[in-house]
Amino acid sequence: MRDALWQELARLHAKWRIFKQLFGTSTENVELLNRAAVSFAGVVQDSMVMDLFVSTGRLLDPPRSVGKENLSLPGLLAALHGDDLADLRARLEALIADAQSHYSNAKQHRNRRLAHSDLQTLLRASDAQLPAVSRREIESAINGVAACLNEVDASTGRGRTQFTEVIQPGDGDALLRVLKSGLDAQEEHIRRKREAAGLPPDKPAV
User: Fold this and answer.
1) Which residue from 22, 27, 69, 197 has the highest number of Cβ atoms inside 10 Å of its Cβ?
2) Cα–Cα distance, 142 to 16 (Å, whole number)
3) What is the DSSP letter of 115?
4) What pLDDT digit, counting tens, does each position of 99-111 carry?
């Protein structure tokens, strides 16, 4: 179970890193994406946020749902038996509770808008408004999940994983570089065509 959780957590961190590169690092990156394909960028951003909510929530799910076992940190906690693991279980319980506290607002989105289509929420009833979820909350929840698994690994001598330091070839930054290069080349092509046709250069937008 531990190895499967590690793989899920690594994938979650990879998605979070790419999301930050594309949408959470600078306004220039967002403007670049909008220049390239504004509708596509909007769909990708919304889809990635929803996936982050769901993926984080799965790792914090209870050990069982509708009679079936879940791959989750509470499930790992439930599998830790023996008096010699009492201290580890206590530390892990506290860390899971902390991660869940950061995830609480995102959990409402997951339960009422993503996993299910709550009627009053989707109709935007005044008494069913969903809370805003900040990037800091998402990051704190993800880091909290990592702290849980690292606590287990440290207790077994595996050592802790710095998930935020994993290098990802072909990540969000790579995409942004290609987009900028392509847009710059397109603008240069248009400039040369106007110049060859004896037309004045386009005026910059005010």
Assistant:
1) 22
2) 9
3) S
4) 999 999 999 999 8
Position 206 confidence tier, pLDDT thresholds 50, 70, 90: very low
In Å, how far are 24, 67, 118, 185 from 58, measured between CA atoms? 23, 16, 19, 43
d(CA 127, CA 140): 27
Q: Is residue 193 part of a domain?
A: no
Residue 115 domain-assigned (yes or no): yes
What pLDDT score does 125 carry? 62
Q: Is 146 exposed, middle or buried (0-12, 13-18, 19+ CB in 10 A)?
A: buried
- Residue 149 exposed, middle or buried by CB count within 10 Å (0-12, 13-18, 19+): buried
- Give the pTM: 0.85
∠ Cα 108 53 4 (to 5°): 125
The mean pLDDT of 88-103, rounded to a whole number, is 95
Residue 59 belongs to some domain of the structure? yes
Its domain, for residue 140, covers 2-168
Over the range 80-104, which residues count as b (16 or more CB within 10 Å of their CB) and which as e? eeeeeeeebeebbeebbebbbebbe
DSSP class of 130:
P
d(CA 120, CA 125): 5
Q: Total domain count for the chain?
A: 1
Cα gap 62→60, rounded to integer Å: 7
Q: Can you say how many angstroms the Cα of residue 54 is from the centroid of all Cα atoms in its chain?
A: 9
